[in-house]
Amino acid sequence: MAPMLDRRATLQQLARAGAALALARLAAPVLARPEAPRFTDDPFTLGVASGMPRPDGVVLWTRLAPQPLETGGGMPPVAVKLQWELADDEHFGQVRQRGEVWTGPERAHAVHVDVKGLPPGRVYHYRFHCGGATSPVGRTRTAPPDDAEVGLLRLALASCQHYEQGHFVAHREIARQDLDVVLFVGDYLYETSNPDFRLRRHGPRPTTLAGFRRHHAQYKLDPDLRAAHAAHPWILTWDDHEVENDYAADRGPLHRDPQAFLALRAAAYQAYFEHLPLAPWMAPQGPDMRIHHRYTWGRLAELWTLDGRQFRSPHACPSAERPVGGRISGACAELMDPQRTMLGFEQEAWLQRGLAHSLRHWKLLGQGSQISPWSVATPLGRRLFTDAWDGYPAARERLLAGIAEARIGNVIALGGDVHRHVAADLRVIPNESRSPVVASEFVTTSITTRGLPGYAQGLVRSSNPDLKHARSDERGYVLLSLDAQHARAEFRATRFPVAAEARLHTQAVYAVESGRAGVQAEHPEGPSPAPAIEP
Ligand SMILES: [Fe+2]
């Protein structure tokens, strides 16, 4: 980007202006705002993104951060105005809408533009301008009209991108795919570090808003992640690592005091919002943030994104050494308590109402984990991970019984979190062949995060006949294609550790036939169809 003024001189100038403004604040309640600083360094280092596509609009995002790893992103602590424009073509010959938006240090100089009034079912290009600098160009699209007969929906399902544990080669491929949308279902970043699997560093565990902002900035500096954001609109929900591993509502393993944990959660949610293409109305209020939402794709599909963290009951049967999360074997009466919930009763009711009234062909549940069972049979009883849906069996049964009793067809759960590709049947009573299959599930493996070792994964497979496919040895994402006849999941994958130039292959292909719950193998093991990407 073209140098304008020396950055230090600009900062000194702005510091003097800030002091003058502080004095002026004593006299006048309304302050004059500088239009935009002049940058010597590119302020668009974190790229651009779009998300939450609707038939009439989409959210555009960027954050000004000329020094992204510095506190404040290298921005002066003042309000700044940006211009945005959205066009039919990538050269901006046909600009359809443009506007101005203010941002400031209270939101890390991030912007979330909720563009409205766009024609449905179209591809658009967008960019931002500020202080003589222009952002990279992003590509996005609006959803088809609500009542349209849509032939095809193609989405990439992704989750679990530990920066330290590999390169984001899966995002490199996602960026080049012909997709309608990316559905990211959690663990967008990791607060933890494992020195055994560290290929690169992402900085210390964040504990403050400044720390979470730096962490998000570190992730966005990855060019493959930025490319995937710039190429497609994203729909997101979260899991635990965006805040703290295995947290449940107001409790975290490292924060037994709810007030201390909620302060951490507020910082984490604020930084999460600031760095992702989420609608302005989603901005958190302290430690609370609404992320569950409903999306449509013509008459072909309806998608509910679910929040399995903010409203869940505490983990069942905690041990003294592991008060939150962990594994249990054998008896735990609390596990079956019907008062325990994964989504919170309000969100459960909202989802069941939505499912019962949906007129769309496919009903998709985008959520952070694996609904199908994966506990392991042992001589002491089933050994299960209390943080997973296995730890909330009554909530799982309510969800699936609600689908069965209302005879809701073509429901597919789309999950992540467990670092393995899974195709599974969903029954009201898991693994019980007399309990009919009422829905289907595809779970994506991680973008990078290490999966279960082979022997443990073998036990998971042999203990759970509902899992038709479950492999934890490769990283990647799921390419999902939906039409009126089939939902087809192509498990794209590469072996761990992920080399910087690794190429993905198709590990397996599974499908759900319209009107018939349950997954069927098309190609249970590779080789399989070539990806539809340009070289
Ligand atoms: Fe994860």
TrEMBL record:
UniProt cross-references to PANTHER family, sorted A to Z: ALKALINE PHOSPHATASE FAMILY PROTEIN (AFU_ORTHOLOGUE AFUA_5G03860), PHOSPHATASE, PUTATIVE (AFU_ORTHOLOGUE AFUA_6G08710)-RELATED
Protein name: Phosphodiesterase
Limits of the Phospholipase D N-terminal domain: 46-142
PROSITE patterns: TAT
InterPro entries tied to this protein: Metallo-depent_PP-like (IPR029052), PhoD-like_MPP (IPR018946), PhoD-like_sf (IPR038607), PhoD_N (IPR032093), Phospholipid_Metab_Enz (IPR052900), TAT_signal (IPR006311)
Organism annotation: Caldimonas caldifontis
Keyword Signal: yes
Renumbered residue ranges of the record's region Disordered: 515-535
Pfam families: PhoD, PhoD_N
Domain of life, source organism: Bacteria
Domain named PhoD-like phosphatase metallophosphatase: residues: 155-491
UniProt keyword list: Signal
Keyword Transcription regulation in annotation: no
Signal peptide start and end residues: 1-32
Biased composition (Pro residues): 526-535
